[in-house]
Amino acid sequence: MHEGVKENSYSRETATGNRGLMLEEALIFEIGTNETTGVDLPEPQAGADRLGGLGRSEPIGLPGLSEPETIRHYTRLSRQNYAIDLGLFPLGSCTMKHNPRLNEKVARMPGFADIHPLQPVDTVRGALEVINELAHWLIALTGMHGVAMTPKAGAHGELCGILCIRAALEARGDPRAVILVPESAHGTNPATAAFAGYRVENIPATSEGRVDLEALTARLGPDVAGVMITNPNTCGLFERDMKAISDAVHAAGGYVYCDGANFNAIVGRVRPGDLGIDAMHINLHKTFSTPHGGGGPGSGPVVLSEALSPFGPLPYTARTKDGVVHLVEEEHADEFAREHFGKPLQSFGRMSAFHGQMGMFTRALTYILSHGADGLRQASGDAVLNANYVLRSLDDVLDAPFGDSGPCMHEALFSDKGFAGGLTTLDLAKGMIDEGFHPMTMYFPLVVHGAMLIEPTETESKAGLDELIRALRSLAERARSGDESLKGAPYFAPRHRLDETLAARKPVLAWHGPATPGGTPTLSEQGGS
Amino acid sequence: MRYLPLTDADRGEMLAKIGAPDVDALFADVAAVHYLREPIADLPGHASEMAVERHMRRLSDKNLAAGDAAFFLGAGAYRHHVPASVDHIIQRGEFLTAYTPYQPEIAQGTLQMLFEFQSQVARLYGCAVANASMYDGSTACWEAIVMASRITKRNLAILHEGLHPHYVSTIRTMAKFTGDSVADRAPTLSADAGIDALIAEIEANAPSCVVVQYPDILGRVYDLAPIAEAAHAKGALLIAVNTEPVALGALKSPGEMGADIVVGEGQAIGVGLQFGGPYLGLFAVRDPKHVRQMPGRLCGETVDAAGKRGFVLTLSTREQHIRREKATSNICTNSGLCALAFSVHMTLLGEKGLRALAAENHRLACLAADRLARIPGVAVVNDVFFNEFTVTLPGDARAIVRDLAERKVLAGVSLGRLYPDEDQLASGLIVAVTETASEDDIETLAAAIEEVLR
């Protein structure tokens, strides 16, 4: 406390619960009423009722706020969030980089934002060109043969890739039952394989943090449909044996799926297609800077090898020799395939209602064009440089389990080995909040006890990294000395540690207060009957 | 390369700290034969903000935006006026550029919003609990079927003929791989939607679930209670699908009529058309005991160490990052920002605004149906509807829609586009009328159809 500022009754509680600029905000259900609205609409007129006697008779219970109250409610809420616009977001395996505002401006151009997915194709030629241009970049950067643009997020892309593998195997009359997944994989990988009807078997990691090539090749056989590998992997390392793994899997009649969540580390420097990969999803919301928005939307296009390309989902776009980009839907899919590829359609089908995340395509393409081939390559280089700088600046105070295993890729892995007094990774992470940083990824990958995975990305400056390093050194030293006070962190966040056990044991998942805080509508206001 | 803060001097200092001669050395684990030493040759280099904006503007201008036409498309995606405040809020960096709220102490903004969103959706759907958003309506519908199979330990899903054909395709694709059986058929151009036949089909089988869209793909609306009753009598769950949430401002909720799982597309509130995505999957259950079988994320209320109310992601033992291959779904990234847009728009509307919006949509749709019915050769299929109905035209509606588009009239979605293999539907056109269509637009549509048919 600053000299001259004395503790007084306000240091503990205020009447409002606010603390200066740290504002408490009630729920809309507590401050809104069913009579309040923030939009001007005509009063409902009597007469039109063709609802077949199914009109609502009971209040819904939706609170309304005026426009100024709405703006203030959500602005106050926004201030309780950490975000990439506020500072470094060093999450391992989830690239959180600067989101350029040009991307937002472009995505809102009426020709992209205000078109319907089922408009006549001649009225959306520009949109189809965007999809095709982005597809061209993704294919060129990955050295693959085709790309499925419709998957809505990374995990949806995984499903797309696995379904392509399954369709390809079934087309050759060789259905197989097993997908191999290394234990360092993202949790979505085994969940995806199981969802697609496969039995999942784990493959161990070596003491060096890479896939155990011997264990993997030993398990290959006529029942193995494929393997799912993350490269660079979740220990932040490049899978040196990737090509050997691919060759072995192909020789055994299977296919290689690569989780492309970490593609940011190698863009413009390594083409997954050169490594024998058959399918890989690309998280546009990671590598190509589309914003994560508190959990999404994502977008997960899947690049495909020549062997798997024919099996990708509908709809798709394709440029023909005359330069026209076609939208291939059910309407003329088979005819199109016969005319342009000389064979019937082999698509595994449709995996969602429309053409994919157009709003993310425009953002990603804008980002890609801004960077260009030279800038993307520089970006992956800087991302890897930043991660190695963090690794080498901290490996004297934090245990780096694979620190001797060669340079890391885009993320640096540490563990809580050496912490004293029962302090854990969680305590250090919560301490980061008080230092003004978002915590790193905790307890993942599972192959390392008390893992801390830090991915700084290329959009952080050296000064920013030095500040992060200073904070982490201080926290690491406190953890090694068994500083008890860390167990209470965070102290300076909008909330102290939250009781997650209570939330799960007695779930409160919706507001249960009165349905209509402002009174009940009369029958005449309800319309219909 | 305006997005990269490192200077060459920084890079030099950092490489010295690492003990590497250059950046290429950091990729030593990549076999030399696979490492690219130069930018990929057939791709262009970086471009200025102005140049990129110009290029993208040129592509945007090649499209006919809904706002520049008389616009009547629906069939699963709806154009509504989105208040300017919605886009302002979702562009606040603290929402736009935040991560999944895994660190709840510094993510209360997102978490409280998700709790409010879940509460709004649950009430709109007449359910106990809603989750914190799926990708879109079609994938949410598929997840509901998987969930019903898990609960009933059966695997036959009966799909009503009025279910959106893209949802049916999505379900059929996925069912091939999970071993679920699917019974579906193309719609008949009838007002009664074959509900009696559906109930007979339920009674003759032991399905895991029955899937009914409300309002359906042709815009038809019917009482779900008898269907729910038939399903429950056979131990099956009723899944109700809604693709136009504004309709629920006027119509009884599916939960109120006995649907067990209600799923849908939230795009119409706050999100915008965006050529099909990103959209917003909504997912709710009527019976709280089904919560643990739900896919996706849930936000719950709790307290912090100082006793203050706060919110966290909860019941995560259902999820893939813990349960791996035994998870209820592989879904990870959701549509959080679209959920925010939905929630802000719904808060601006409130009960009063949503009801007024629904009433205005219905009024204009009634007006349009009456006007189109007066055109010789045009017949309205369904006389019960909300803001969308189906007409039959003399001739293939696909060709007529294309002719109308040349006149800057986007007339609706032809059934031929959705059901290319069903010749008996070729004359059908689905017309959606929201508050964004003026009475003049309706007259423009009718006059244009008259002209094209002449």
Automatic annotation (TrEMBL), chain B:
Subunit notes for this chain?
Answer: The glycine cleavage system is composed of four proteins: P, T, L and H. In this organism, the P 'protein' is a heterodimer of two subunits.
Gene Ontology terms: biological process: glycine decarboxylation via glycine cleavage system; nucleoside metabolic process
Question: Which protein family is named in the record?
Answer: Belongs to the GcvP family. N-terminal subunit subfamily.
Could you tell me which SUPFAM superfamilies the record lists for this protein?
A: PLP-dependent transferases
Q: What organism is this sequence from?
A: Tsuneonella aeria
What are the entry keywords?
Oxidoreductase
- Indicate the enzyme's highest-level EC class: oxidoreductase
Stored HAMAP family = GcvPA (MF_00712)
According to UniProt, the name of this protein is Probable glycine dehydrogenase (decarboxylating) subunit 1
UniProt-listed Enzyme Commission number(s)? 1.4.4.2
Q: What GO molecular function annotations does the UniProt record carry, in alphabetical order? A: glycine dehydrogenase (decarboxylating) activity
* UniProt keyword annotation of Oxidoreductase present: yes
Q: What does this protein do?
A: The glycine cleavage system catalyzes the degradation of glycine. The P protein binds the alpha-amino group of glycine through its pyridoxal phosphate cofactor; CO(2) is released and the remaining methylamine moiety is then transferred to the lipoamide cofactor of the H protein.
Classification via Gene3D superfamilies: Aspartate Aminotransferase, domain 1, Type I PLP-dependent aspartate aminotransferase-like (Major domain)
Please report the stretch or stretches of sequence annotated as the Glycine cleavage system P-protein N-terminal domain. 1-447
User: Which InterPro entries does the record associate with it?
Assistant: GcvPA, GDC-P_N, PyrdxlP-dep_Trfase, PyrdxlP-dep_Trfase_major, PyrdxlP-dep_Trfase_small
Listed under catalytic activity are: N(6)-[(R)-lipoyl]-L-lysyl-[glycine-cleavage complex H protein] + glycine + H(+) = N(6)-[(R)-S(8)-aminomethyldihydrolipoyl]-L-lysyl-[glycine-cleavage complex H protein] + CO2
Statement: the UniProt record of this protein carries the keyword Cell membrane: no
